[in-house]
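FIELD: query
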Amino acid sequence: MESRMPTHTHHSIPQVLPPANCFTVLVIDDMQANRILLGKFLKSAGYAVFEASNGIEALELLRATAIKPDLVITDVEMPVMDGITMIEQVRYLESPLAGVPIITASGNADEEMRSRAFEAGTDVFMTKPFDLKALKKQIAKLLTARRRASQRVGLESTITQPNRIDTQAGLEVEN
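FIELD: result
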């Protein structure tokens, strides 16, 4: 009996663009379980989530796709390219990508790692496991600040629509 399964591989499935009123978050972590858990949390709050397993993969996504994230959340310690090196590279990309807010996280954080992350250009450093309430607040703060800065300078913002979120969850981004 002939199979009716598609002949293309998983990797050839085209990426679907998120709805226009949905913020996008790029989650970068070498541990798939962490990406899944964080992705579920963000999706339940109304965000479109894209994933990468290391810094090189993240940079390839940023350079090659029509998806331009409104926020990046990255692990620090990853194979191939670590989060701090990836942040340095993102800050050299063309605008508006160079200014994307970045939350950096590590389960093995020390003061030196924290300092290196801020020197590279991270906006927020958090420890893992995440305090989800604190993460929600940081996301809202960063997206609000980015929107206001874009409006002040008169730049075309990548953040043009309100997020579809549960206001009871505390993630509402102010206009």
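FIELD: remark
The radius of gyration is 17 Å.
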